Amino acid sequence: MQVDARNWKALLSSGQVRLEQAGIEEAGNKLRWVAAHLLGCGLLDVLGHLSETPSSETARRFDHAVGRLATDEPVQYVIGETDFMGLRIRCDPRALIPRPETEGLVGCAEEFLRGRKRPSVVVDVCTGTGCIACALATRVPEARVLATDISPAALELARINARELGADVEFRQADLLEGVADASADLVVSNPPYVSTGECGRLPRTVRDFEPRLALDGGRDGLQAISRLVSGAARVLTSEGRLMMEIGDDQAGAVSEILCKTDLLKFLGLRSDCAGRERIAIARRTAR
Predict the structure, then answer these.
(1) Does residue 1 have a pLDDT over 60?
(2) Which residues contact 257 (CB under 8 A, 6 or more apart)?
């Protein structure tokens, strides 16, 4: 049997050529992610292993990963995980890949929860991988965290993440806030589907062809899930409770208008992501 005697430098170099020929963007960075995963080290630490020769099995796994990357499959699915708020979150096509901008949503939620004088009830709607719920459960352990998703497959993945992270989260299959009792939640947090149906077909291939359409498609105007979520949050939130949700970078005006139309919620404003884009909408439940 032929033994692959290429060192990491040669593997990365040949992999980059293959990906660039396939038109894959950020080829070098994606390959370092794969190498770091196989080596069990950080991205920067890969440089210290370039002269080493991996086992034939590891080289085979690397080549297999390159083949998957060459189809534009997201690197997070290829390696099966990503980092979110310092947590290792398992990823696969059952759920949307956690993104850095969603960490800002968790930061806002954590700030609110830590400012409360009593333990809070949190509902994470459209939980996907469970990244938001798990992050809040581990960072604010006194909170009771419930997470919902309409997809049983996504919930299965979310439960795996919670179990591996030791996060105390209750998972429930539901359409948004269906089945959550009136006036029972102090915080509703969500990264709902907010891409318009038409725009879904124009998303980059790495998103369009691999991530679940159910987690992306927000209807004709991208606001259907958001509108229903606002209505549901007004029902389930306690007095002075908060709704915090991630929105599209072009939806600030439309979402502000939706929130301002209801007397049951007071629109508190928008928070920007690290790129300065208004991506988080916050509202407060008025007194019951």
Answers:
(1) no
(2) none
